[in-house]
Design a protein that fits this description.
- With about 350 residues, this protein is mostly beta strands.
- It has a single domain (about 5-340), classed as Thrombin, subunit H.
- About 15% of the residues lie in helices and about 35% in strands.
- It contains six helices and 20 strands.
- It has helices at about 40-45, 50-55, 100-105, 145, 315-320, 325-340, and strands spanning about 5, 30, 55-65, 70-80, 95-100, 115-125, 135-140, 160-165, 175, 195-200, 215-225, 230, 240, 240-245, 255-260, 265, 270, 275-285, 295, 305-315.
- The strands form four sheets. Strands 1, 2, 3, 4, 5, 6, 7, 8 and 9 form a nine-stranded mixed beta sheet that branches. Strands 10-11-14-20-18-15 form a six-stranded antiparallel beta barrel. Strands 12-13 form a two-stranded antiparallel ribbon.
- A hairpin with a 2-residue loop joins strand 16 (about 265) and strand 17 (about 270).
- It starts with a strand and ends with a helix.
- The model is unreliable at about 1-40 (pLDDT under 50).
Length: about 350
């Protein structure tokens, strides 16, 4: 990817909410206005699921200081959206999702670091008279420009979200409706079990892409759905997580994980259907001391990987998206919309 440091135009990250238009069968999407040979919405929605999943991904690099020494971690973020029945269906509130330890470096070690800037790599639409192209751009923002990250009150939950406004005429991306989050519980119609297929997409630091960002896709199966608390990457605090048999790697922190709820279950065959089951947080390395590792890129040092990945459950992400602070922000926006769009 180009090392060009793009200056932010009209603030990419704002603590206000906007909407992205044009819903899609699998994911919602935002693309540039049609021009000759420009990407069309039908071209995106007809892509395989894994290509649509890759379109939701952004690469996040966090620059911070530790004891006066500049450092950087690299990982994954993705876009998710929340709707409201009182406003048009195309009106969606969009958020950038990643791990707590990506938004607040070393929080998994119980430390507070001063973040100096965030780099967000996105695919952008480059308009041309005859043919539009997709190219990667780096947007650099300070914490003040980024706005306020929201974290779960439970410090064992490795999640962070921030409201974003993206210009669909320049940014090439898709976002995942929160309705695609799988909540597995007694009142739900879909239940998962060990052995179900999972797939995720994220940052591959050995080859992130040259002209475009190139998320890597990995797959595996649900390995364990513990009914008790297990150690997490946050200071080994015990929490509720899933374990999947899928080889995550440094840079996959913050990757969205989908489970295929289709296939043969009992005497019933269900068609292929993917639901967001959670977010990659870390993995179990083959350390002698048994300590856990997050899945961010820090020093480039890689340890043996057991192939068991730690996933923050989607229900915890949904709870964060519907925390009182974010609900209040959306409610104010909805009320303003209703006041200015009276029948």
């Amino acid at each position: 990817m180009s090392k060009q440091n793009m200056k932010l135009r009209s603030s990419l990250f704002l603590c206000v909410l906007s909407f992205i238009s044009t819903p899609a069968p699998a994911f919602s999407q935002a693309v540039a206005a049609a021009k000759p040979n420009a990407p069309q919405s039908s071209e995106i929605t007809q892509q395989p699921f894994t290509n649509q999943l890759r379109n939701t991904i952004a690469f996040l690099h966090t620059h911070y200081e530790a004891d006066g020494i500049p450092k950087e971690i690299e990982g994954t973020a993705f876009f998710i959206s929340v709707g409201d029945d009182r406003v048009p269906k195309e009106r969606r509130y969009v958020y950038l999702v990643t791990n707590r330890h990506m938004a607040a470096p070393d929080s998994n070690l119980g430390m507070s670091r001063r973040v100096t800037s965030y780099d967000l790599w996105l695919n952008t639409v480059q308009h041309a008279p005859e043919h539009n192209t997709i190219e990667a751009r780096k947007y650099t923002v300070t914490p003040e420009m980024m706005g306020h990250w929201y974290f779960p009150a439970d410090e064992s939950i490795d999640l962070a979200v921030v409201p974003v406004v993206l210009d669909p005429t320049t940014i090439y991306f898709q976002h995942i409706p929160d309705s695609e989050i799988l909540i597995d519980g007694p009142s739900e119609s879909v239940h998962i079990a060990p052995g179900y297929q999972v797939v995720f997409a994220g940052f591959f630091y050995q080859f992130p892409g040259v002209k475009k960002i190139q998320p890597i896709v990995r797959q595996g199966v649900m390995a364990m759905i513990p009914d008790e608390l297990v150690p997490t990457v946050i200071q080994n605090k015990r929490g509720s997580v899933f374990l999947v048999d899928a080889h995550s790697y440094h840079g996959n922190s913050g990757s969205p994980v989908f489970v295929n709820t289709g296939g043969m279950h009992g005497n019933t065959f269900m068609p292929e259907s993917y639901k967001l089951i959670g977010v990659v947080s870390g993995y179990y390395p083959e350390h002698k001391d048994g300590t856990l590792s997050d899945a961010a890129v820090l020093t480039g040092t890689v340890h043996d990987n057991s192939g068991i990945t730690i996933v923050v459950p989607g229900e915890q992400l949904k709870a964060l998206l519907y925390c009182p602070e974010l609900r209040n922000i959306r409610e104010r926006d909805v009320q303003n919309y209703l006041a200015t769009h009276k029948p």
